[in-house]
Every structure is written in structure tokens, then in C-alpha cells.
Amino acid sequence: MRRLLLFIFYFMYSLSLFTQEPVSDDRRDTKHPKVVKSNITKHYHSNDHHYEDHWEIPSKNPDRIILTFYGNPSSQRAVTWRTDSTINDAVAQISIAGNNSKFKMNAKTYSAKTEELKIGDFHNNKHVSVHYHSVIFENLIPETLYAYRVGNGKIWSEWIHFKTSSNEFKPTQFVYFGDAQNNILSQWSRVIRMAYQKAPDASFAIYAGDLVNYAHLDNEWAQWFKAGGFIHSQWTAIPVVGNHEFGKIPPENNQKLSLQWRPQFTLPFEKSLDKKLHETVYSINYQDILIIVLNSSEMLEQQTAYVEKKLKGSKAKWKIITCHHSIFSPAPGRDFEYGRKFWKPLFDKFSVDLVLNGHDHSYARGHVPVKSRLNDENGNLKTMYITSVSGPKQYLVDRNQIKNYTAEGYTNEKTGEDTQFFQVFQTLENKLIYAAYTATGDLFDKVIIMKDFDTGKKTFVNTNQIK
Ligand SMILES: [Fe+2]
């Protein structure tokens, strides 16, 4: 009965996915802005909505400060932040961090690129323009702790630390989150903050899509930035676009990437790809770890060629793919067939180590090929596939559906339901240690993958079974 109800719920949910009708938010079920159904032609009157919360109001003070990769992580880093539209002369300063306050004497100042964003283009936002500013720090020294701040020369953020990567393969740690999406401030904040407690020195954080529920609704982005707070300015973010980062802006009827996405995340763009895919499909090489970010919501064929080219040309020690839709979907009725049919063979061929997904609001970890079993001495393991969720919205796992993937070479080893998760990875020499934690910080799943970098052969130990 529970499964039947879930299926009905899921079906109804799928139908409503692109209509941008808001669900209730437990902070404000009565005063949540009414989003107009995008398939209804409506005459718009004044859209000068009030702000919901004081912390979403732009001011002269920098907010929504976020680090992203741009270029070589050992010598470059991008920072983006927001102010109101009166700030036109934005700058960032950076210096090697020091133990006393004199470090700032040697700070280098960068002029920012400023972009105006009319958030009122989406009629449920306040009808204002905001300014997004960005700087790409360059010529940084590898493996060095830096301090930076952003502002306009008079009004500044605090000084914020981050560390550049090494130029070569070295131990590192990073985190990954499934969908945050709903009640972001109320119930996702505890997850990212717990993740920060577990892995404060993480080199980067992968957000595997559906960071918000309504692509263009600025209050939700305000929640996402407030939930992470200074963590977004200290860790380096790898944002992945999900289906909820697309929405209609009436009266137009086509799905548009979130208005905020490109202004607020300074991301690498691949010139060879269609402009539509810029800053949603990109790659990062971090200390010999290759991370390929895909946009599983549009123009998939073009990305197949991109993945092949990137994987073919890579000698990285670890290869990671992340996209929002789950290749081996655990949620009832869901099926990312294109990904399994056209991307998975490439992951097999080039022995991708990890595929990190979201979208299904549950947890599933499995491996390809089926032959790869516990303590497999033969090094058969090719790819570990993980689907996870960090936000409060939860679906059940369809175990029969998962079993059907056996024919496609997948074997599942762990599932989870009704739990908010975050994941921490650690690379140590030839080992990759993977741990999934719950919102309360309890260990839920742990695997150690060992790789012979000369032959590419991998074995793994599922520590859940060892206990
Ligand atoms: Fe999704």
C-alpha cells in the first residue's frame, strides 16, 4: 500500500515538475509567494513583491560569497559575490594568510567584473536589479593558504581562508551532496554544517543538482547561501545543474536556466560546446583527480561526445563524473535511459571510478560490473555509482527496479530511505575512502577502493560487511 501511494505521489509529482507551482515551505506556508503556473497565459500587473526575509535584501555589503574553480586549482580560483546595484567599483584582495594581522599589507587588489541581474524578470521576485561581482585570482602559489576579502575599497567582507591545490597527486578530501531543494534553510543547513564539521578541510564540495526547488525564485537562492554561510566562501563549490534549476519565465513557455546560475557561479565554460551548455558542463583537474560535470537536463548527445573526448585525453589517477539524474535510478518509475545507454558504456570503457548523482531523493550505492564482489581479488571493479539526497524531501527505493539493472552490469550493495545524507571522500596514495554520513553525523556506509595506478585494476572493501 505504501509503495502504491508512493507511486501515485511520484506520478503526480512528475506531472507537476515543470509547472513551477510552489509547495508549502514549513517556514511560511501562508506567505510563500504565489508562483503563476507557466502554462497559463496571464496578464501581469505590478510585480513589486515584498521581500520575505531581511537577509535576502541586497545591500552595499557583499553577500552570497562563493568560491569556484576556474582554470588551474593550484594557481587560480574564482570568487563571486552580490551587492545592491549602487556598487559599481567592486574589488577583491588576496594575500598569503599569516598568523598576525600584518598579512594584509601584502594584499594584491583585483578589479571585479560586474554584472547586473534583474531578478524581477521572474515576476515572483522583488522587482530590483542586483549586482554580481567576480574576480579570478591568478598566479597563486600551489599548496598555500590564502586570505581574501571582497568589497569596494570601503565596505568589505571579512578575510576568508582557502588553500590552493598541489600541482601533483596528493592526499585530499572532498564532499558531495545530493539534492538540497526543499526547506533549504530550515532543514538543509544542518546537513552542510555537519559536513563541515566532518570534513572542514575539504578541497571542494560537489552539489549534484536541484540546489533549489524553483529555479528563479531568489528567496530560495538566499536560503541556499544562508544555509551554507561562510562555508560557501571557504570551500570551493562544484555546482551541478539539476532539473529544478530550469523553469519557465512567463509569458515565455520554454525552460530557462535559473536567472541566478551564471551570474552567481563563475564557472569554466567549454568553448567547443553549445552556448546553452556553458557553465553547466565543465571539467576540473584537481591534483590528478578529473571531475566531469554534466547537465543531464538538455542537449545530451553533445555531452556524449564531450565525455568521450575528456575521458580519452585524461591520464588522471581518479576519474569522477557527476550529473543530476541517476544512471541507475533507485526511485520508483524513474529511468534515465539515455545515460545508461550512451554514457555508461563510456564510463566502462575508460574505467571511471565514481559516478555521483542526485534526483531520486533516496540513497543507493552499487558497482559495475556485477562480477565485482566483496574483496574481489581479480580487480574487476570498474565504477562505483552513488545516488544520494541531502535535503528533506524523500522517496522510497524500488528494489525490484534496482534488480533489473543486473542485466546492464550493475549490482547494488546499499540503499537508504527517509534519511538526509552527505558524503565524504578521501584519497590516500592508491586508496579512495568513501563514507556516507547521515544528517546527525552517523556513519551509514563506507567503502575503500584500492587501485593499482599502473594497471588500473581496482579492488574494494565494503566495510559494512567487515564489522
Ligand atoms: Fe531532480
Which value, in Å, is the CA radius of gyration? 22 Å
CATH topology of the largest domain: Purple Acid Phosphatase, chain A, domain 2
Shape: globular
CATH superfamily of the largest domain, by name, is: Metallo-dependent phosphatases
Count of domains? 2
Task: Describe the SSE topology.
Elements: H1 2-16, E1 63-68, E2 77-84, E3 91-96, E4 108-111, E5 113-118, E6 129-137, E7 145-151, E8 160-163, E9 172-177, H2 184-198, E10 204-207, H3 218-228, H4 230-234, E11 236-239, E12 246-248, E13 255-257, H5 261-264, E14 282-286, E15 289-293, H6 300-312, E16 318-322, H7 337-349, E17 354-357, E18 363-368, E19 383-387, H8 399-404, E20 411-416, E21 421-428, E22 431-438, E23 443-451, E24 458-462, H9 463-466
Bound molecules: fe (ii) ion.
Description:
The protein is α+β, with helices and mostly antiparallel strands. The protein has two domains: 54-163, Purple acid phosphatase-like, N-terminal (Immunoglobulin-like), CATH 2.60.40; 172-466, Metallo-dependent phosphatases (Purple Acid Phosphatase, chain A, domain 2). Helix content is 18%, strand content 29%. The strands form four sheets. Strands 5-6-2-1-11-10-9-21-22-23-24 form an eleven-stranded mixed β-sheet. A seven-stranded mixed β-sheet has the order 14-15-16-17-19-18-20, with helices on one face. A four-stranded antiparallel β-sheet has the order 4-3-7-8.
